[in-house]
Amino acid sequence: MTLTLPVLAPPDLTALPGLTAALAARAAEHDHAASFPHEGVELVHRAGLLTATVHPRHGGSGAQLADTVRILRALGEGDPAVALVTAMTLFTHAAQARAPHWPEQPLAELLAESAERPVLLNALRVEPELGSPVRGGLPATTAQLRNGQWELTGRKIFSTGAVALRWMLVWARTDEPEPRVGFFLVRADRPGLTIEPTWDHLGLRASRSDDVLLDAVRVPYEHTALLAAPGADGGRDATAGAWNSLGLTALYLGVARAAQHWLTGFLHERVPTALGVPLAGLPRFQSAVGEIDIALSGAERLVGALAAAVDAGEPGAAEESAGAKLLGTRAAIDAVQQAVALVGNHGLTRRHPLQRHLRDVLCSRVHTPQDDTLLLAHGRAALHRTTTNALAPKGI
Amino acid sequence: MTLTLPVLAPPDLTALPGLTAALAARAAEHDHAASFPHEGVELVHRAGLLTATVHPRHGGSGAQLADTVRILRALGEGDPAVALVTAMTLFTHAAQARAPHWPEQPLAELLAESAERPVLLNALRVEPELGSPVRGGLPATTAQLRNGQWELTGRKIFSTGAVALRWMLVWARTDEPEPRVGFFLVRADRPGLTIEPTWDHLGLRASRSDDVLLDAVRVPYEHTALLAAPGADGGRDATAGAWNSLGLTALYLGVARAAQHWLTGFLHERVPTALGVPLAGLPRFQSAVGEIDIALSGAERLVGALAAAVDAGEPGAAEESAGAKLLGTRAAIDAVQQAVALVGNHGLTRRHPLQRHLRDVLCSRVHTPQDDTLLLAHGRAALHRTTTNALAPKGI
Amino acid sequence: MTLTLPVLAPPDLTALPGLTAALAARAAEHDHAASFPHEGVELVHRAGLLTATVHPRHGGSGAQLADTVRILRALGEGDPAVALVTAMTLFTHAAQARAPHWPEQPLAELLAESAERPVLLNALRVEPELGSPVRGGLPATTAQLRNGQWELTGRKIFSTGAVALRWMLVWARTDEPEPRVGFFLVRADRPGLTIEPTWDHLGLRASRSDDVLLDAVRVPYEHTALLAAPGADGGRDATAGAWNSLGLTALYLGVARAAQHWLTGFLHERVPTALGVPLAGLPRFQSAVGEIDIALSGAERLVGALAAAVDAGEPGAAEESAGAKLLGTRAAIDAVQQAVALVGNHGLTRRHPLQRHLRDVLCSRVHTPQDDTLLLAHGRAALHRTTTNALAPKGI
Amino acid sequence: MTLTLPVLAPPDLTALPGLTAALAARAAEHDHAASFPHEGVELVHRAGLLTATVHPRHGGSGAQLADTVRILRALGEGDPAVALVTAMTLFTHAAQARAPHWPEQPLAELLAESAERPVLLNALRVEPELGSPVRGGLPATTAQLRNGQWELTGRKIFSTGAVALRWMLVWARTDEPEPRVGFFLVRADRPGLTIEPTWDHLGLRASRSDDVLLDAVRVPYEHTALLAAPGADGGRDATAGAWNSLGLTALYLGVARAAQHWLTGFLHERVPTALGVPLAGLPRFQSAVGEIDIALSGAERLVGALAAAVDAGEPGAAEESAGAKLLGTRAAIDAVQQAVALVGNHGLTRRHPLQRHLRDVLCSRVHTPQDDTLLLAHGRAALHRTTTNALAPKGI
Q: What are the backbone angles phi and psi of residue B153, rounded to the nearest 5°?
C-alpha cells in the first residue's frame, strides 16, 4: 500500500513570542477553573507546531530536539498545560520519525486529521498499582484477543490532556500464554473508554491529567506498536529519554522565565512610599534578579547545547540528558522560590501569577526520570567509568 | 618592516591525557614546597600548547576559546598552577590575535623565543592600594619619561607565575600633564625589577603569585600597548572577559574532576571490615557521586557550549560568560566540598590529594569578575531588558 | 473606679493534643472554602487558651511566652488560621499584662465578654500605601476629633481574622496641628466599619486577612492606647518583638510538624508493588525523615529556650528572637519542601494535606520582621559589638 | 581502702575570656609547626578547668555539661587543639563522676597528680582496620594475661593529644576463650608504648592525633574498666553521647566565632580607596555578618539549652544531642565558609587566620557520630514514633 499523505504546514518559530503572550493571557483562568485550554492548543496547531516533528517522509518538517526545546520553552512560559500536551504529541511524532512503528492505516488517519485540526497524542503508562512502569513491573491493563480484535481493560492515571486526546497509546499486556507488552493505539472516541476527572493538583491544573478507564475497549488487531516480550524497552531508548528530559526541562524553564518576567515588571512598577524609587533600583533586588537570570540562562544554554548534541548524534549526549533535567528543573524551582521569597505577600496573593508559577514549577520534579533514580544511575555509571582510571589512588 | 616570524609548533590536543597525568604526578610536591612547576610548563610548551592561540599571521595555529577551555580543563586537572600561568599566556596571545596591539619589535622577539622555549606572559594589574583595578581607579604604578625612555616605578601584587614570567604587561599611568593609562611591556630580566616571595596562600601555592617591585625600570618608549586616556578599557572588552571567565572556570572544573577521580578510586578501593564490599557498592555513595558527576558534566557542557558560541560571534554569548563563571566555579567548589564531607578523615589528611583540591578550588572565587560584582551587573542588565516587557504586571 | 473583673478560666494545656486533632479535622475544608474557622476558635476558647496571657490582676493566669509558644505550636499543627488569630489575641493580652495601657472601661468590657465567649483582638497596622509601618512612615488612617469623639477614616489591609474580630486596635494618626500616632480601640460592630473580602491567598486561606474600611467610625475620646508623638514605638519594644517572632515561628513549626506526620504516615502505609515493603523501610527515606526531624526538633528547642530566656528577663534574649524567627521559619519551610520533593505526585495532589501545609508554611516569611530587614539589623549590631574586639586583626 | 584525695582547684569561668586570648596568641604558630600546645594546656590547668568535671566525692567541683560547653566554646575560639584534649579529659572525668568505674589505685594516682600539674586523659578506640568501632566489630588490639598482668598489643590511630597524654584508656579485647572487651588503663610512660607522629592533617594540626603503638605493654590485672562481654556499650550510653556531641559542637562553634571576629575586625579596618569608608558600612557585608551571627547565636543557644536539659535529666534530651551536633557543626562550617567567600584573597592568605579557622572547622564533621549515621538513626526513631500517630493518613 502506498499512503497518500497530506503535506503538513511547516512550524512557524517566529510565531513563538506571540503565542507565549496569547497563552499567558488565559492561563490564570484555566488554572483557576482547572479547565483544559482547548483554544490554546488550537493556536499551537495553527502555527504548525503540533506536528513540527513529523518526519518529511510523512509530510512533515522533521524538526529536531533543538527546535523542540525552543518551542516548549516558549509555550511553557505562556501556559505549561498547553506546552505539556504539545510536548507529548511532539515526542510521539519524533519517536515515529526516528523509527517508524505505527501501522500504516492509523498513521495515515492520524496524519490526515492532523493537517486539518489539532490532534493530540499521548502514551498512557502509569497505573495505580505500579507507581511508574519505568521502575519495573508489568502493566495491569490487559488486552484480550476476542474475535480477531483486542479488548483492552484497565485504568491509567496521570493521563495528561485526557479530555482532549485523539489517540491514546495504551501500555498494556496481552493475556496470551506468554504475555507480550506494548502499546495499543486507541482512538479516544471508542466505546468503553471513559475519562474520570480525578485530576485535582496543586499545579498544572489545566493539564487535566485525569484517569482513563478502559472497559473492554476494542482495538483492531494490527493497531499495536512495539508489542514484544516483557523486558523490551517500549521505545524508552536513550534518545527518547533525552527528548523527554530536555523537552520537559525546557518547558519548566519557560515557567521560571514567566516568573522572572513578572518579578522584574513588579520591581519596576513598585515604588514604596518610604523609598521614592522603584524597587528595581535597589542593589539587593538587582543581585537577586542576577541570581535568577544567571541560573536560568545557564540552564537554557545547557539544555540547548545538549539538545543540539543529541541531534548531532554525539556519543554520550543522550545519556547526559537526565542529569541536565536534574540541574535544569532545580534551577527552575529555585528561581521561582527565590522570586516568591523576595516579594512577600505580593508573591503569594492569587491576584498575581507568581504563586501559579510556583505551583506549576513544582510539578517538574514529578516527571520521569525522578531525581533519586537518575542520581543513582548516574553515580553508578560514573563509578563504573573510573574503575580503571589511571589517577585512582593506590594503597589507601 | 616585515617581520620574519618562526613557525610555531601546532598544539597537540591528543597529548592532553598524558599531560594531565604527568602534571598530577608532581603537583603534591610543588604544593607542599610552594615551588613553581618549571618542568610542568616545559611539558606544556613541548606539546605546543603554550602558543596555541597565536594568530596564524604570527606563525601560530589560532586556537580559539573552545580549544582553550579543553586545554585548561585538562591542565587544571593535573596541576592548576601550571594551568593558570598557561591561561594567562594563552589569553595574552589571543588578545593579540583578535586585535594586534604590541609593537613589532617586542612581538618579534617574543615569538622567536616562544618557538624555542617556554615563554610565559602575564598582565600585572593588581596593586595593594586599589583592590582590583576593574573596580575603578587609576594605577599607582607610574611611568616617567626620562631621556626618551619610560621609567616604571610601583608594586604589583598577585602576579601569577612572577618568578617564571618572561614578559610582564605592567598596567601603569604616565606622569604626563594629562596622564595616560595602559600596558608597559617589561622583560622580566630588566634591572630594577625584583620579585618578593610574598605569596603564601591556602591554595594554588605553586602558582607563586608573588609581588613584583619596579624601581625605575627602563622600558623603550614604544614598548607600550593600549596607552590611552583613563577610562579606556585596557583590553577588557566582552570577548576578553569571556576568555578569562570561561578559561578559568574550565581550569577549576579540572580541579574538581581530579577530586572526583580520587573519590571514585577511593570508593572502589576502600572495603570496610564490617561491610565486606567496597564503599562504591553503597547507594548512598553512588547517589553522592551522581550529584558530583552531574554537576560537573553540566558545568563543562555549559562552558564548552558558551565558548563555541563566543568563537562563533553569537550575540550576547560573551556577556553570558560571567554568569557561567559563577555557576561553574560554584559547581566546582560544591563538588569538592561534597567529596570532602563524604569521606571523613581520609578527605582531610595531607597524605591524600583531596584536601589539596579543596584548597585549590577555593581560589576560583577570587578571580575577576567576583560573584558580587557580576551578580549586580547581570541583575541590572536583566532588569533593563525587561523594562518594556509585554508580560510585565499592570496596576499593582 | 475599681473594676469588677470576672475570673477567667485557666488555660488547659493538657487539652492541646485533642485540640490539634480537632482543628486538623476541619482545616482542609476551611482552606478549600477560604472560610473562617469559627468553631475552631470556640474550641480554643473553651480550653481557656484564648485568654491564657491575661494578667492575674485582670483575672487571668498570666501565661508567659514559654507557654504561649507551646500553645501556638499545637494549634498551628492543627489549623494555622485558628492559631494565627489566637496568637494575635494572646499577644495583645500579654502586652497589656506587661504594661497596662487600655483605658478601664473598654478593658472591663473586653474581659467580661472574654469570660463568656471567644473574643478575638488584633492590631491593624498595614495600609496599602506604606508597605508595612515598621519600615517607617505615618499611617494614612486619620482620626478627626468631632464633638468630643474621634472619627476614624482609612483602610487597613492584611487584617487577620477581620470577620471574627471583636476589637480592632487601629493604628492611626490624629489630625491635630501636631499629629499624634497610636491605637484607637474600635469595636467591630461600630457603624461605618466594613470588611471587604479581598483575601485570596495561596496559604492561610482560612485566616481571612481581609481589608477593613473605616468611614468616619466613631470612637469615644478616651478609647485610645499609646497615643503619642510620631517616632514612639507603638508598643513595638524588644519584648513585644520577641513574642511576635517566637510565637509565630512556633505556629509555623507546628505546620511543619503536621507535614512531617503526614509524611511518616504515608511512608508507613505506602507499599510499592515492586518493593513489597513500606517506603519507611528504605534508608533513603529514613535519612530524609532524619533531616526533617532534626531540623524541626532543633528549631523547637531553640524557640522554647529563647522564650524561657525572655520570660526570665535574660539580657539580650529578646533581641535574639528575630534571628530565631529566621532560622525557625527557614527550618519549617525547608522541612515541608523536602517532604514535598520526597513523595512526588502524592505531595502535590489536593486530596492530601501536604500541599496545603506547603502553601501555609510559605506565609511564615511574610510576617514582620522580614528576613532582609532583620539580617541587616543583626549584622549591624554584630559589627557594632566587635568594634573594639581584642581579637580584631591588626595592620591588614 | 579509703582514698585520701586532694582537693582540686575549682574551675574559674571568669578566666575564660583571658584564656581565649592567650590561646589565640599562639594558635597560628602551633598550627604552622603542627606542634602540641603544652603551654596552652598548662593555662587551662591553672584555671582549674582541666578537672572541672571531677565529682565532689573525688575532690572536684562536679561541673556539668552546661558549664562544659561554655568552657569548650571559649577554648575552641582560642585554640581548638587545646580545647579538644581538654574535652577528652573532661568527658572522661564526667563519665567517672556519673558512674564510677576506675579502680581505686589508678584513680587516686590520677587525682593526686591532677592537683599538681596538667593530666590529660583520652580513650583510644579507633584502629586502622575498623573504621570506627561504633560502627560495630571487635577491636584488633588484644590483651593477653601473662603472669597475672595484661600485655597489650595493637595500634590505635587518631589518638588526640597522644604526645601529651598521661593516661590512655585503651579499648581492647582479651584473648580469653570467651573474649571480653573494655578499657585498659595505661600510663603513657609504660615500656612498649610508642607514639608514631603520623598526624598530618588539614586542620587541628596542633592536636597531634598520632598513632599509638602498643607492643606487649604491661598493665596491672585490676587496671581495667567496663570489661565485659562484647556487645556492652563501653560507656557509650546516651548521656555520654550527649557530652561528646554537645561538647565538641561547642568547641567548633568557638572556632566559627573566632572566624566571625576576625571577619568583623577586617570589615572595620578595610577601607577600599574607591569606597572611602570601611567595608563594614556596606549593606551587603552587614547582611552577610547578620547571617553568620544569627546562625552561630542560634546554634549556641540550642547547644546550651540542650546541655542544661541533659543536666536536668529531661527525658529525650540526650537523644536529641546528635541532631544538635549535625545542626551546630553545619552552622559552624557554613559560617566560616561564608566568611571566606566574602573576603576573597584575604580569606585565603596564610598571613590571616581565617584559612586556619576553615581548616579547623572542617574537622567537626569527622567526630563520631557522623552525619550519615545519625541521620539514619534519627529518621528511624522518628518513623517509629509515628507508627501509631493519630494524624497519619488513611487509605492512600
A: -140, 130
